[in-house]
Amino acid sequence: MASPIDPIHQFELKNLFSFGRIGNSEIAFTNASLFMFSAVGIIALLTLLATRDRAVVPGRMQSLVEMSYEFVASTVRGSAGQEGMRFFPFVFSLFMFILVLNLFGMIPGAFTVTSHIIVTFALAALVILTVLIYGFWKHGLHFLKLFVPSGVPIYILPLVTMIEVISFISRPISLSVRLFANMLAGHITLKVFAGFIGMLATGLGAFGWIVGILPLGMTVALTALELLVAVLQAYVFTILTCIYLNDALHPGH
Amino acid sequence: MAQPIVTTTGATPPGAKAAFPPFASETFASQLLWFALAFGLLYWLMSRIALPRIGTIIEERSNRIAADLDDAQRLKDESDAAATAYEKSLAEAHDKAKAIAQETRDALGAESNAKRNALEAQLADKIAASEAAISARTAEAMASVRGIAAEAATAIVERLTGRAPERAAVEAALDRARAS
Amino acid sequence: MSSEFVAGVIAGGGLGWLFDRLLGTSPGGLIVFLLLGFAAGTFNVVRAAGATGKTGSKPYRS
To answer: What is the domain range of residue A80?
Structure first.
């Protein structure tokens, strides 16, 4: 590692294979791509291998898979109702993808794909596009009722509608920024505190080793916190997705 | 939504300065491409293979559990019915036994009653006969007493007066004495 | 929670910038839409806090 204390270094993309360029953009298979496909591989392995026996009495792995299934299913049903179950594969894929990528990021030295805004934005855009396309396909122009709240006096209705539209547009932004910022900030903080240990140990000698216990303790605590955040943010993304999908299913509140 | 971001920020010349990696727009196209491939693959695997399979497993299990519960309920009902039948036959047997015992007791009671009655009648006869004998004897004795009294009275008078009283006078005196 | 607000402002600013670009009304559109975005962000935050309860609020971080 060039500079072990640089907290930004961990977010750098490294090209593993290059496929040439399109305009200014290089199309390359990077470490991020590798981790994305690893996540897909792990999820597929877990869900397919664990359920290979189709056991009536599940083993440990099968229980885990079934638990995730039931968990996402109950989240979808809770927020978007039984009709929302048509989006269940989508929501399940989203949840598992984000969860596994977030948890991958907690492995020391691993790359955190969800700390890249473009990935989280692509995820959020998928959600909002699904909401828009399904909403207009199912309800036609009635879907626009979503932006016209009922029970508002007519003279401020245009203003409120405008605000609702901006609020809707802000959804993919807040959805992607929340996940991205949480992962980014968490990993930078972790790196900074972990860096302190090395700095103190090399800079202050024996005394530094003793004082270094403080940032070490912080790092341990932060690691626990970041594990929680990794799971929580995957859940938050999922539940917000369900809430937005509910809008597509039932636009006229 | 993804499109404007890519085109607007993609215009910055690459390598102008070492950008903050997550905001390095020249990597966006590549990232999006691999993201689309990876997520597409994941979605396909989940929606076509994994989730239907898990759904089937869970459904089969809940069906199996429901069936097992039904079986258990049925067996319980059966055993309940058997228990009720057993209780009923037990109660019947009990009643029957009671009836037999009562009957036997009644029969025995009647027999001993009859025997006792016969015995009592016999005894009563005997008592009556004895009483009759006793009263006959008494009457006989009473009759003898009169004779003895007359004789005694005659003897006493003879001794006192030196001559035997008349038979009729003694009889009259005895009658008087008896009457008083 | 804060990202709700920031997202509202960003969305408003972005819309205003586009509006100005398309109609050449700079900087009027940006100002108006930024204000609207500010309002939308506040709306988002209030909604996320569950005060209006319109979208079935759930507690979540930042």
So the answer is: 28-249
